Amino acid sequence: MRRVTLFVNGSPRNGKVVAVYGTLSDLLSVASNKLGIKATSVYNGKGGLIDDIALIRDDDVLFVCEGEPFIDPQTDARPHEELTGSHTDWLTLNVGGRYFTTTRSTLVNKEPDSMLAHMFKDKDAWGNKQDHRGAFLIDRSPEYFEPILNYLRHGQLIVNDGINLLGVLEEARFFGIDSLIEHLEIAIKVSCLLLYMNVHLLFFQAIYNLVLSVLALKQFSQQNSQPAEDHSPISRKEFVRFLLATPTKSELRCQGLNFSGADLSRLDLRYINFKMANLSRCNLAHANLCCANLERADLSGSVLDCANLQGVKMLCSNAEGASLKGCNFEDPSGLKANLEGANLKGVDMEGSQMTGINLRVATLKNAKLKNCNLRGATLAGTDLENCDLSGCDLQEANLRGSNVKGAIFEEMLTPLHMSQSVR
Fold first, then answer.
1. With left for phi above 0 and alpha for psi between -120 and 50, is residue 272 left, alpha or beta?
2. Residues with Cβ < 8 Å from 413, sequence gap 6 or more?
3. Closest by alpha carbon to 81, among 129, 14, 137, 9?
4. Which stretches in the chain have pLDDT values below 50?
5. Fold identical between 90-184 and 234-422?
């Protein structure tokens, strides 16, 4: 088996030792693969064209070309290299698969102590590898290398949107571009500071908006907590706007506010504090007043038909002449409505569910409680004079000390035991 050394036409460097076998076409195919060119002909060291594989001897030095005339590597090396650009100032870099064309002076002059300057200051000083197109191979990220190359060109740090400055900084450290490292560190600090300021600006803007909301609510509360004679009653529209501006989990305080004559029907008024509020002549039909605080509130003449009053607090409230037909005071969880000491003179509570309700010492004189469910209710000390209790369920109700003078107990669902009333 014969061995020969193959060179690219006109170049005495980067030769490849190959075995010779088969035909001349087989040798050209091996030369194409080894040298990265499209080999079409082979010359010996004196420029003789070899057209027969038998003419090749062991340890011959051969020059392979792509169809161009033979170039003597000794006498014609400089013209060929100038033609191909090997010794010119222009060169091409293959950085991570992306090509960059620049000049040797760009890579060397700006940062003479950098890795790039040492790589390209003297030709082949570092044995730089080249691809099949003659571009110098650099295994780094092209998107981070581009800002570095531009900096070496004009001295300005320009980074496109979407490029991470930290990645460019790492590349600058790798290549030893000291002056660029300082620029990048400052740029990163400024970027972080701006981000920090933007976050805090958004935070303070949110705090500012919250403070404005609190001040507006406080002003609204102050304006509407004045005596009724100084301010007109709150309308449904104003109150709905107030409800919509209040988070559902926030406690809404409407103590002492004037809602006289307002239409608040079918609104969700759960857990609202209406203590000592003026709700006289209000329309609260079908409203949800579950667990609302109506202590000492004025509900005289109001309409609360079919309202949900589960767990409501109406201690000492004034509901004289109000209509509470078909209301639900019964809470399945066991929370009992408390109307202790309330003034319920002449109220119409027909058909209401009032299981376990506390009406201790309340006044129900002339009230209509027909067909009400008062099972287990506390009516101790209650004034039931002339009260219509016909058709009521008073099983286990506490009537001790209550005034039942003139009360009507017709069509009772359960018998009324004498032990339940001592008066």
1. beta
2. 391, 392, 393, 394, 395
3. 9
4. 76-87, 228, 230, 418, 422-423
5. no
Q: β-pairing, 98-103 with 136-138?
A: unpaired
39 closest CA partner among 60, 73, 16, 12: 16
Euclidean distance between CA atoms 262 and 37, whole angstroms:
95
**Among 60, 62, 58, which residue's Cα sits nearest to residue 1?**
58
pTM of the model: 0.45
Tokens, residue 253:
């305080």
Q: Which CATH architecture has domain 2-65?
A: Roll (3.10)
Structure tokens given for 412: 């009772």
Task: Classify residue 69 by its DSSP letter.
Answer: P
Q: pLDDT tens, 162-216?
A: 889 999 999 999 999 998 898 888 888 888 888 888 887 788 888 878 887 788 7
Whole-number Å distance between alpha carbons of 322 and 318: 9
3-state secondary structure of 315: coil
Whether CATH 3.30.70.3290 fits 90-184: no
Domain boundaries, the chain: 2-65, 90-184, 234-422
- Nearest Cα to 309, choosing from 366, 322, 383? 322
Nearest to 276 by CA among 290, 295, 260: 295
pLDDT at 249: 65
> Domain 234-422 adopts which CATH fold?
Pectate Lyase C-like (2.160.20)
CA distances to 17, 302, 308 from 337, rounded to whole Å, are 103, 18, 11
In this structure, are residues 365 and 346 in contact, taking their beta carbons and an 8 Å threshold? yes
**pLDDT value, residue 84:** 42
